Amino acid sequence: MCIVKNFRFAKKNFANIDADAAAALVTAASDMAMVLDASGIVRDVAFNNDDLANDLAGAQGWVGTTWISHVARDSAPKVEALLARGKSGATAPRHVNYPTDDPNVSIPVMYSTVAVDDARIIAFGRDLRPLSALQRKLVDAQRSLDRDYTRLRQIEARHHLLFDGAPDAVLVADARTHKLLEANPAAVRLLGAPPRRLIGRPLADFIAPAALRPVADMLAAAIASGRADEVDAKLLANDLPISLAASVFHQDDAAFFLIRLTPPANFADAANPLRARLLKLVEAAPDGYVVSDAAGAILSANAAFLAMVNMPSLDTVLGQPLDRWLGRSGVEAEVLMASLRQRGTVRLFATNLRAEQGSQCDVEISAVALANDGHFGFAIRDVTRRLSAERRPSGELPRSVAQLTELIGRVSLKEVVRETTDVIERLCIETALQMTGDNRASAAEILGLSRQSLYVKLRRFGIIDVPEDAAGSAD
User: Fold this and answer.
1) Which of 67, 395, 399, 400 is deepest in the core (most CB within 10 A)?
2) Are the C-beta atoms of 173 and 261 separated by less than 8 Å?
3) pTM higher than 0.85
4) Nearest-angstrom CA–CA distance, 96 and 75
């Protein structure tokens, strides 16, 4: 295909056009036209656009001045290119800016130049401001679309966060075909199938045949009124009884079901055998486990705790305050509960547990406050045997101050003072023996003791084996 750039019969059709007609043609072909000489001096100016004429009101005074002196500084090279190329024929359009009183605003004009003869060049100008306005509107529209798209993405992200994190099993289905479109993790666990096997299948594939008619009637009622009452059904895969409720929402001229599935109350334990085993292990654990409310009233307890407090059954302790059996006084229980409320966890809290018949045992308690639930959990361990071993059944004493401080809260102050005195005596005797090279007579003299008293203490503390006859014969 041949593209004709020039009139084929120009001489015939334009031969008799006079100057006024030629001027009218030039003016009509542009918003602004200028006649320039070969050096770029403006010889005449004409406007075909009133807005451009008003904004370039001083253009009539350009006659006799150079064109380049009126354009913006960044447009000067473009004007030079238009003049240089215009001498050899028509030029490609170039964007030229004219400055205004506002330094941030300029008047854009698109120019093409044509050489009439060796002495004259005509510049045809087209006002670009309408195009610029359209470009600004396009940019603004694009920015608005970007903002809307970002907002939709954020809404979609929140939707998925709520949908996936909801504890209830929720399905989204097409209202016309009843095919599943979305299923949250709770619904996936309830239906017992991976998502790829759920999406695209009709809801009826997962409902036992006996419940298909009630479910279909419920969905029809939801279409008619927007919401329907719950119906009971059973899942086909595991024969689990559930309740279904549906509501309708519209999107893009299409209707969809939002279906909520409610399993039995004990479904969480039945569907998670590991959790069920964990509960059985806690129930059978040798340590006591107790769950209480925020006030300390017992809500549940295992068999080991019942044995510790000598209570026959769980019913006899439910609703009773834990401090009925816990602590030597009400202060210890108050300290434990206050620490639990403040910190959320308590580890190895030493106290004792009083049985119903009056016997006591030393215990260590680790406890936790269940977040946002208002319940406390207690693990209670009987450490009576361990503490007895740590104490001195055969006269053995604690060997450090750290061990003595660990006794605080486990034994009375009188016992702690007695233990402390014994430790100091033993340390003094050991030091005296070291200073005298294990000379017992000299050590007794340094300590201000008789040798008989020193031998009694040596045998008592187990520092050195002293025969009974040596201790008895000492003066």
Assistant:
1) 67
2) no
3) no
4) 5
